Known about the structure:
B: six-stranded mixed β-sheet; four-stranded antiparallel β-sheet; C: 70% helix; globular
Amino acid sequence: MQDLLYFSQQLINGLTIGSAYALIAIGYTMVYGIIGMINFAHGEIYMIGAYTALIAITGLTALGLAWLPLILVVALLCAMLVSSSMGWAVERVAYRPVRGRHRLIPLISAIGMSIFLQNYVHLAQGSRNVGFPALIEGGFNFGSDGNFQMSLSYMQITIFVTTLICMTALSLFISRSRTGRACRAVSQDLGMASLLGIDTNRIISATFIIGAALAAVAGLLLGMYYGSIDPLFGFIAGLKAFTAAVLGGIGSIPGAMLGGLILGVAESMTSGYLSGEYKDVVSFGLLILILLFKPTGLLGKPEVEKI
Amino acid sequence: MLEVQNLSMRFGGLLAVDGVSLDVQEREIVSIIGPNGAGKTTVFNCMSGFYKPSGGKILFEGKEVQGTPDYKISRLGMVRTFQHVRLFTQMSVVENLLVAQHRHLNTNMLAGLLGTPDYKKREQKALDRAAYWLERVGLLDLANRDAGNLAYGQQRRLEIARCMVTEPKLLMLDEPAAGLNPAETKELNQLIVSLKEDYNVSVVLIEHDMSLVMDISDRINVINQGRPLASGTPEEIRQNDDVIKAYLGEA
Amino acid sequence: MAANNFRHALFCAVVTLIISIPILGLNLEAKGINIILTGAKTSTYVAIVLAAVAVFVFQAYRDSIMGLLGKLPNFNPLADKEPMEQSKRVKLESWILTGIVVLALFWPFVVSRGSVDLATLVLIYVMLALGLNVVVGLAGLLDLGYVAFYAVGAYTFALLSQYTGISFWMALPIGALLAGLTGMILGFPVLRLRGDYLAIVTLGFGEIIRILLNNWTTLTGGPNGIGGIPEPTLFGMEFGRRVKEEGNTSFHETFGIAYSGEHKVIFLYLIALVLAVITALIIRRFMRMPVGRAWEALREDEIAARSLGLSRTAVKLSAFTIGAFFAGFAGTVFASKQGFISPESFVFLESAIILAIVVLGGMGSQLGVILAAIAVTILPELAREFSEYRMLIFGAAMVLMMVWRPQGLLPMRRIHITLNKQE
Lengths: 307, 251, 423
C-alpha cells in the first residue's frame, strides 16, 4: 500500500513538472516547425519571465496590494509582456538576419544570445538565487499510511489547470484564427505561403511571441513551485523542454504536451527511486536515445532525405 | 553486370516506384526515360544506395546489393552524378578529384603525418590521375580554380571526371545534359560514348534530351508513374504506341 | 520619414523600454527572509532611455543611415585588394606563426610570474581551440560538449596520479588517448545525426559527464575535486624546493642555482608552448592530407561525398576523435598546472568559450584561432572591470559574428593543393 502511495505521489509530482515543461516545449516546437532552427535562447526567455513575475509580485506587494488572485494575474501579464517582447526582439536581432543560412549559423547565434541574456540578468539582478514566495500554500492530504502521506498541493493543481487553459487556448488559436491558419500554412511550406501573400515575417514573429508568452507562464508557475530562481535557472529547464519537444516529435504541438508529461514523470521517478542527482542524467540520456533511434519522436512525421 | 528486378519504393502511402526491372550488360549504354515525376531519380537513389528499396532486388556482378550503404556501393564500382550538380564548391577543381580518390589513397594516418615516401608516391599518383582526367574533359587549365567558379557546363564535366577517377565499372548519370547548350550536349555525347569505347564503362543514363538518348543508347527503358512502360532499342521505343501516348498525353 | 517607419520605430523603442526597465531598473534584494525591490541608479535609467531613443532614431532613419554607412570610405584597407596569391599567403602566415612562437619563447623571461601563468592558460586554450577547430571548423560538426574530453584528460591524470603515482609524461599520452577513445565511443552512435541534433546530443553528453564527475564521489571526490596533482619533471628533475619522489633530483640543486618558484612556472609554460606548437603542426598536416580533404568534402556536400565512397561515419569519427584527443592533451596540462581539479572547470560555459574562440577566429583558420584565444583569455585580465562583462560581450560577439561575418575575422583560406602543369 505504501509503495503504491509513494508511486502515485511521484506520478503527481512528475505530471506537475511535466506540464510546465510542456509549456516551455511549445516555444521550441513551434519555432522549429516553422523555421527549422533550435531556439537555444528559449530557456532564457523563460528565466526572464520568472524574474519579471517575481519583480511584479514583490512590487505589487510593496504597493500594498493584498488580493492574491489580482497579484498573480497582474504578475502573469507583466511576465508575458516582457518575455514576449524579449522573444520578438531576439528574433529580430539575432535570428532574422541569419535566416536561410547554413543550419549551424542560426544555432551559434542562438547560443550567443543565450549566453548574452543569462549574463544580462546576472549583471542586473546578481548571480545569487532569490527566494520566490510561496503564494499558494496548502493542499489536499489523503491516503496516509504509516509514515507516508500522499498529498496534492493547491500549487500543483494551479499548474495543471493553468497549463490546461493555455493549451486549449493555443489549440483554438491555431485551428480557428486567421493567424493560426497562416502559422500552419507557413510551417508546411514557407516559400509557398509567402507566394500566396502571407506575410511570413509577421507569422514568424508571432510564433516567437506566443512561445515566449507560454514560457513566461511556465516561469511564474515553476518559480513558485521551486521557491527560488537564479539566472542559470533557464538553461537546464530549456534543455529539458527541448528534450520534451523532441520526445513528442519536434514540430508537433500535441507532441510537446505528451513529451513534457513523459519526461516529467521519468524525472520524478528517477528522483523518487534512484537519486535526485541523476534525474538530469536520465533526461539527457532519454534525449540521446530518442534522437538516435526515433529522431522524429512519438508524434512527428518521418523525414525523407532529399537528394 | 547490373540487374534490377521488380524494384519498388514506397514513401509513406505513396508508391513512387513499382515493379521496375532493368539490366545493363558490359560496355552498354542504357537509358531510363519518362515524364517528370515518373520515379527515375528514385530508381537511381535505390541503385546508388541512398534509399533502401521497399521491395525487389538489385544485383551487381551477381551479388545482391539492395540496401547496401551508399559509400560501399560506390566502392563496388557503381558511381553516380546528380540531377543538380553536386560539387565541393569551395575546393579547387583538382581537389574535387583528389577527394574522389580517397579510398585509392588508402590513407594510413601515420604514414601521412610522417610523410613517408610511399605516401608521397601515392599522393603523386592521385594527382597524375586527376590531371589525366582534367585533360580528358578539357578542364586542365582551370585545375586550381574553385569548383564553384566554373561555368555550368564545366561543372557538369567536372562531375563526370570526378566519377571517372574512382575507376568505376558502371556510371550512373542523372540528366547530364540538363542546362547545356546544343554544342555542349554534343561534346557530352562524344564523351559518354568514349567512356564506353575507351574505358569499358557501362553507363545508365537518365535524360530528357531525346536526341542524346536516341543517339547513344544501346537500349532504353521507359517508366511512367513509377511503373515500367516499355523497353527496347531506340528504334523500338520510337515506334512504341504506349510511349507515344504517354509522351503526347503529357505534352 | 514615412508614417509606417515612424510607427515601427516607436514600436521598437517601446519594446526596448519593456525589456530593459523591469530587469535593469528594478533590482530584487534579499533582506533577511524578505525580498524587497530597489530602484537602480539614476544613470541606469538615463542609459535605458538613451538606448530607447537610439533604437528609435536608428529604426526611423534606418534607410538613410544604412545609405550613409554604405557611402563611407571603406575602413578595411584590405577590402579592395585582390586576395593574396596562395603561395604568398601561406608564406606570410607561416612567418607570422613563427614570429609568434619566437616571441612566446622569450616571453617568460621578461615578464612577471603572474603573466607567465596566464600565458600558460592561453596556450591551453590555444590547444583546445585548435582541436575544436578540427571538429567545428573543418568537419562542420558542432560539438557543444567538447569540454567533456578536456575533463577526461584532466581527470585521467588526476586519478592515475592519485592511485598509481604516475608522472606527467606518462599521463600525457594516456590522457589524450583516453579522451580520443571517449570521443570515438561517444561519437560512433551520434555522428549520423543531423547538425543541430548532433549539437544538442553532444551538449547532453557533456552535461552527463559533468554530473557523473560531480556525483561519483568515491572515485572523483565529487564537487571537492582532486588535489595534489604532480607537476611535470625534466628528465627526473623536480621543480619543488624539496624532492618528493625518491630517485628524483631537484632542478635547482642539479644546476647549482638558488631555488625559485618561477622555474616551475616557466617550465610548465614552455611545455605548454611546445605542446601547442606540436598540436598546430599536426593539425596543419592533417588539413593537407586526404583525411583533411575528406572532412571538408563531407562538410560541403555530404551526399556527394558519400556517393564517392566516403563513409560518413568514419570520416566524421576521425575528426571527432582527433579533436577529443587534443582536448585530452590540454586537459592533462591543465590538471598539472592547477594541481587541483573539480567539475567546476568543466561546465558548459567552458565549451561555449572555446566555441567562441573558434567562431571569432574564423572557423578553420589556425592563425585566427590562435589570435582569438589570446584575445579572449587576456582581455578580461587586462581590464578587471571588463571581466564582469566578459560573458555578456562573448554572447553578443557570437551573435554579431554570425550576423555580420560568419566566416570569422580572419576567414579561412584553405591551403589548396596546386597542380603544376606538366608540359
